[in-house]
Specification:
about 130 residues, mainly beta, two-stranded antiparallel ribbon, globular
């Protein structure tokens, strides 16, 4: 009986550690296509807001909506990579799907996103659970 009680107490005191979450923003906007890349001028830059977790959940917001979904996440020696195919755009489901590639260098807090023609560098911060 004492063994069972101890096991219950030990299992109930364990709490699942929330996944690391990252928040990123761009300072410039770069568009890339087969014929090359070009940076938009500062007054034409579309602010982006990106959230991603080690659990694979991500959100890449720009314009009037977000590409959201679940990605495969890889930790390559401190380089975190999220990759998802055909993520839907929240304000136009099925009409503006895009592949999402997000890379974050943990130690520097610098990243890169490629989605829907946008290919931009990012500044990223790790978020505490609940933020």
């Amino acid at each position: 009986m004492l063994t069972i009680l101890a096991a219950i107490l030990l299992s109930s005191s364990k709490s699942e550690v929330p996944p690391d979450r990252w928040s990123c923003q761009n300072e410039i906007e770069v568009w890339c296509a087969v014929d090359g890349c070009a940076a938009k001028s500062q007054d034409e830059t579309t602010p982006m807001s990106i959230s991603a977790g080690r659990d694979g959940a991500f959100s890449v917001c720009a314009y009037t909506g977000c590409w959201e979904g679940q990605a495969n996440v890889h930790d390559l020696n401190g380089r975190l990579l999220w990759a998802a195919d055909g993520a839907e755009f929240s304000t136009n489901p099925g009409g503006f799907n895009a592949d999402v590639s997000l890379l974050i260098i943990e130690k520097d807090g610098v990243g890169f996103v490629r989605v829907g023609g946008i290919a931009s560098p990012l500044l990223c911060t790790r978020r505490s659970p609940g933020q």
